[in-house]
């Protein structure tokens, strides 16, 4: 005879916890995958940090001023 019996409430709670854990795990895998893809692409990794970014500067014509 078991010392404690599993109640139906425990089984339902375990099912919900398992579902939530799998959902969070899937979210982490998706974010990690997107991060790896972005790094491997090698595109510009500049962030918006309120600083000077050379890639944002428009090139000016070399002509004379009017």
From TrEMBL:
Keywords: Membrane, Transmembrane, Transmembrane helix. Residues 46-66 are annotated as: Disordered. The chain crosses the membrane at residues 20-39. This is Cytochrome C oxidase assembly protein. It comes from Haematobacter genomosp. 1.
